Amino acid sequence: MEMTKTLVSIFLTMILTQNFVLAKFLGICPFLGVSKKVNTAVGMSLAVIFVMALSTAVTYPINKYLLVANNLEYLQTIVFILVIAALVQMVEIVLKKYIPSLYNSLGIYLPLITTNCAVLGVVTLNIDNGYNFAESLICAIGGGVGFLVAMVMFAGVRSRLESCDIPKFLKGLPITLIAASLVSLSFLGFAGVVENIFA
Amino acid sequence: MAEKKSLGKELTKGIIIENPVLRLVLGTCPTLATSTSVTGAIGMGLSASIVLICSNIVISALRKVIPAKVRIPAYIVVIASFVTIVQMLVKAFVPVLDEQLGVYLPLIVVNCIILGRAEAFAGKNGVLASAVDGLGMGIGFTVALFVMATIREILGAGTFLAGISGLIGGSFDGFSIPFLNENPMLIFILAPGGFFTYGLVMALANKLAESKGKPKAELKGCENCPMAKSCAIRATDESCEKKEVEA
User: Fold this and answer.
1) For residue A198, with 0-12 CB atoms within 10 Å meaning exposed, 13-18 middle and 19 or more buried, which class applies?
2) Domain that holds residue B231
3) Which of A194, B37, B40, B230 has the fewest CB atoms below 10 angstroms from its CB?
């Protein structure tokens, strides 16, 4: 019961209060670059959820049984980025060969994700927070879902912005960032919610 | 003489015309995340610049040895090695900075400025030019971070350069801004303030660039990204394709 409580609270925290994009500024590039259309935003986010969960599942044992056990923690950054890069490549190859339909809808986003800081970010954060395997996995999935929520919401906001009369000097990227600021402001309203759900 | 002139150009283009943060829209994540205090911003800017210069030098020295097909993973290994070195140095000598930057220090690996410069410049140019390019881009990154952090720290915390003694030693520990330090606009050091300040500073940079006859920064979600060449989204997203044709 205690365990479930912790997991649910990690999951909700990652979506609402510690949202990767809106509170931690991880994965801003795809957030600004790919959020023009809702379906691209959803495809990208699903691929991110998948890769984040998978890389957490793979790096956790590597870190615990290989790096920490041999006092090699200082190699974490190099090992993790290589594992993630190799993993993404392998997933891409496997999907292309065996599940082409899934590859066509999600696979095209995969190469982009290697250098998405949210993936390396979640792996590093899990270690910094000292999460166990289940907690790490839930944190990764929650982070991915939070990314999805932010992307889809923002794609909606941006389609509204297109038809607005914006002052000339703010046109383009500046107004997009200010809109992101407002979306992020609305998420500040969730502060304290998760902590109090179980109280 | 011509050589000297072009090197000077490589150096200054990164600071203003091709400022990585404000004009090329690269490295947005660390910019937003570490610009809450000027001290953190300077630390982040310097760490990233060191990694950028070193990796640019090594990558351009190895550019004829690395096969084109595996260049991205090779670049990533070089960059990750330098990030690890910087990480260890920071942990050993400036532990305050390590605490402040936290997860964003190892995340320099995926800072798109570094991979972007490796792909766009160091992989094609000589060692000296690449080093200068890295220096210019690093200064540009640090300047942009400094400007944003100055606005955010003064308005959001009512201080300037707070905690600088942890970075450079000595007893000077920043200024306190009267009135604002008692009633800081906290929102500026929270996440929304980051996006807001970035938007305004970028609008300002656009205005300056425009007055010099340069085009304004556009949201080039695709071709600025270091992965653009291997990216397949452009096959489905016509907005990317259009830009490519234009370019």
Assistant:
1) exposed
2) 217-247
3) B230
Residues B190 and B102 in one domain: yes
Radius of gyration of chain B (CA): 19
B25 to chain A: closest CA residue: A29
Strands (E), chain A: none
The reply to whether B237 and B165 lie within a common domain is no
pTM beyond cutoff 0.90: no
pLDDT digits (tens), chain B, 247 positions:
345 557 777 777 777 777 888 877 888 888 888 888 899 999 999 999 999 999 999 999 998 898 887 888 888 889 999 999 999 999 998 888 888 888 888 888 888 888 888 888 888 888 999 999 899 999 999 999 999 999 999 998 888 888 777 777 777 777 787 887 788 888 888 889 999 999 999 888 888 877 777 666 655 544 555 555 544 444 444 444 444 443 3
Q: Would you call A33 an interface residue with chain B, using a CB distance cutoff of 8 Å?
A: yes
A-to-B residue pairs, Cβ atoms closer than 8 angstroms: 163
Residues B187 and B231 in one domain: no
The ranges assigned to domains in chain A are 21-189
Are B133 and B163 members of one domain? yes
Indicate if B132 and B224 belong to the same structural domain: no
List, in sequence order, the alpha helices (H) in B94-223: 95-101, 112-117, 127-157, 165-168, 191-211
**A188 and chain B in contact, CB less than 8 A:** yes
> What total number of domains does chain B contain?
2
Residue B187's closest chain A neighbor by CA? A185
The beta-carbon neighbor of A178 closest among B87, B191, B196 is B196
- Candidates B199, B206, B237; nearest CB to A181: B199
